TrEMBL record:
Keywords: DNA-binding, Sigma factor, Transcription, Transcription regulation. GO terms for biological process: DNA-templated transcription initiation. The keyword Secreted does not apply. Residues 31-86 form the RNA polymerase sigma-70 region domain. It comes from the Bacteria. GO terms for molecular function: DNA binding; sigma factor activity. This is Sigma-70 family RNA polymerase sigma factor. Belongs to the sigma-70 factor family. ECF subfamily.
Length: 174
């Protein structure tokens, strides 16, 4: 498969078609072995998601490295995403157990003040994005929508803000 991948990267469309065909034949049983019998119908979806990921990330393949290791990394990540998405999660109604989960937040007041002081060192919107995604548990998409920006722009702002804060506290300049 490595030779087909290298030829495909060099522009050989026929080699790319053969590679995708071989990958399909290879990935079906690979996923089938990892799925429970109740989830066997998901194998084809995982194959297609993996093929799409291979297509999208094909330019990241390092020709000097084994192809199957690169492929298995992608397939493994798709499988883990699938397991996480389809995991059975128990539902606990918190109304019945509210006193058990009530916590005294007064000890955390100093921590919250410290966090707010630190976040004051980054632009206001960046601080709000970091607070919403890292502290309050909002997704990047939700935070981006609240601030009227694209998800990609929000990710970049969060990354740059955190990088700036890390540099500051690691002794570097902003």
């Amino acid at each position: 498969m490595r030779a087909l991948m290298v030829a495909a990267l060099d522009g050989d469309a026929g080699a790319y078609r053969r590679l995708l065909s071989e990958l399909t034949r290879y990935l079906r049983p690979w996923f089938a072995r990892r799925l429970t019998p109740a989830q066997a119908s998901h194998a084809e979806d995982l194959v297609q998601e993996t093929l799409l990921a291979v297509h999208r990330r094909r330019m990241t393949y390092d020709r000097s490295r084994p192809f199957t290791a690169w492929l298995h990394a992608i397939a493994h990540h798709k499988f883990v995403d699938h397991v996480r998405h389809h995991a059975i999660r128990p539902i606990v109604h918190l109304d019945d157990d509210a006193p058990i989960f009530a916590a005294d937040d007064s000890a955390n007041a100093a921590d919250r003040r410290d966090v707010e002081t630190i976040l004051a060192d980054v632009p206001e919107r960046t601080g709000a994005l970091i607070r919403e995604t890292r502290l309050e548990g909002a997704s990047v998409a939700e935070a981006a929508a609240r601030h009227g920006m694209s998800e990609t722009a929000a990710k970049v702002a969060i990354h740059r803000g955190l990088k700036s804060l890390m540099a500051r506290f690691a002794g570097g300049a902003k």
